[in-house]
Amino acid sequence: MAMRIILIGPPGAGKGTQAASIIEKHPIIHISTGDILRENVRAGTELGQTAKRFMNAGQLVPDHLIIAMMRDRLAEDDAQNGFILDGFPRNVQQADALAPLLDDMSLRLDAVVLLEISDEAVVRRLEGRRVCSSCGMIYNVYSHPPKADDTCEACGGQVVRRADDQESVIRGRLDVYHKETAPLVEYYERSGLLHRVPADGGPDSALKYLESIGVSGK
Ligand code: AP5
Predict the structure, then answer these.
(1) CA gyration radius for the chain?
(2) Taking all residues of the chain, what is their mean pLDDT, rounded to a whole number?
(3) Interval between CA 93 and ligand 1 midpoint (Å)
(4) Domain boundaries, the chain
(5) 16 ligand 1 Cβ < 6 A
(6) CATH architecture designation of domain 3-117+181-212
(7) Is the pTM of this model over 0.85?
C-alpha cells in the first residue's frame, strides 16, 4: 500500500531532513515545492524568474503558480506509488486546491505530520544550515557539519548557505508561517489526519512515529 503524507512545520523544522529518512526506507517520492522552485530559479525558467523575488524576500510564491506546478507534479507516474509533500500545502487556499486534485486521482492522504519547534530554535538551526548545491544534501555547522569544509560528503559538490537563510529573512519566513501556514494545523486536525511530532528528536523521528501508528506504506 502506498504511503501518502504531508509534512508541515515552520522553516527549519526539519521537513527535508525527515523526508530524506523516510524515502531511504520506503519506495515513495519526496516532493518539495521549495526544491522544485529552486531548480526553476537555477534553470532560469519563467516560473523561476517570478519565484526568485518572493523566495529571497521570504514571501510565499503566488498560489496559482504553486497549484499549477503541483497539479503537474502529482500527475506524473512516480507519484502514483506514494509521496511525501514537503512545503505544500502552505496555506488554506492550497489545501483546498489539493483535496480535489487527490479526489480526481482517487488518492487519499494517510497522515499530516506537524513538526513542532520554537522560533528561536528555528533561527539558530537556519543560521547554521548549509546545503550541497549539487545533490541537495542538508548539513548544519552546529549539529552535522560536512567533514571537509564546503565539500559535500555524498557527491563532492560545493556546500553553500541558502539565500533565504539570513536572520532578517528567517524572521520574515517565520511571520509568514504563523499567519499563513499555522491555520492548516486546525484544518487537518478537523479531518483527523494531524499528528504532532517534536522537531528536536533525531532525523528519523517522523519515520519512527509513522511506523508506530501503523502508517508504513507496506
Ligand atoms: P522551502 O524550501 O519549503 O523552505 P521552508 O519551509 O522554509 O523549509 P526549509 O527548507 O527552510 O526547512 P526544513 O523544514 O526542510 O528544514 P531542514 O530539514 O532543511 O521554501 C522556500 C521558499 O519557497 C518559501 O519561503 C517560499 O518563498 C517558496 N515556497 C515553497 N513552497 C511554497 C508553497 N507551497 N507556496 C508558496 N511558496 C512556496 O533542516 C533545517 C536545519 O536543521 C538543517 O541544517 C538540518 O541539518 C537541521 N536539523 C534538521 N532536523 C534536525 C534535528 N532533528 N536535530 C537537529 N538539527 C536538525
Answers:
(1) 17
(2) 95
(3) 20
(4) 3-117+181-212
(5) yes
(6) 3-Layer(aba) Sandwich (3.40)
(7) yes
